[in-house]
Design brief:
With about 270 residues, this protein is α/β, with parallel strands linked by helices. The chain has a single domain, classed as 4-Layer Sandwich (Nitrilase/N-carbamoyl-D-aminoacid amidohydrolase). The chain has eight helices and 18 strands. Strands 1, 2, 3, 4, 5, 6, 7 and 18 form an eight-stranded mixed beta sheet that branches. It has a six-stranded mixed beta sheet with strand order 10-11-12-13-16-17, with helices on one face. It has a two-stranded antiparallel ribbon with strand order 8-9.
Amino acid sequence: MKIKVLLVQVEPIAGNIEKNIQKVEQLLKDSNQNQADLIVLPELWTVGWDCPNFHKYSEELTESKYLNFLKILAKKYNSNIIGGSSVLHKNNQKDRNTCIILDREGNLLKTYDKFHLFSLRGQSEGEYLEEGTTPVLVKTDIGKIGISICYDIRFPEMFRLYAFNGADIIVNMSAWPQAYKEEYITLAKARAIENQIYFICCGLTGKINDSFNFSGSSLIADYQGRITNSLVNEEKVLTAIINIDKMKEYRTEMPILKDTKKQYIISE
């Protein structure tokens, strides 16, 4: 099965959901694509990385501009949507960094709340947001997709869990610092290799301030860790084709997942 993927790398305007929606619309229009199997957006593309003001931007899931826009995208491009993330609250819970996943008809399949919250130079998510309670593997018509956000990429246990449960694709949406760009690329390749899977990254570009720039670094790493498609720092839509059948053939030839033990216990 060949899957057409569109990754939207965007520079957000802090706190301005309407303007950021317009940016994404224009980038997709400029890409001259009218159909896809999967569209992926970055972490917090709706409001930017602005921890102290997250509470000002937070929306209710069912009434959110974020969800309504993603429904439009799904129908317009006849595409499954991994919607990056935005700040949402649900059932009077604290705000969370939440990803919405939709099918091609705009139906809500699942939501994923960022599982590992990040802290750097005073920008501490954990002070302003509540962490999620579980990883999310979602079934779509193009296969099973494991969902992760940014800092999650540093925790391989989560991705092994996805692999053992039949994931065909893993997605990581990020607002990754430029200063740690090489680590991000290396981690993406490692997660792809060790789980023999297509690992898709979609990141913000631009900056928070003069000392904190986003890395961009949207890319696709294949099941052997080869980067087949990538962007640097530009605002742009990356278009790619991935081949799930070839991935499964490789897993048969090189049965790493089959040979992996479900549990490793040290003898002392």
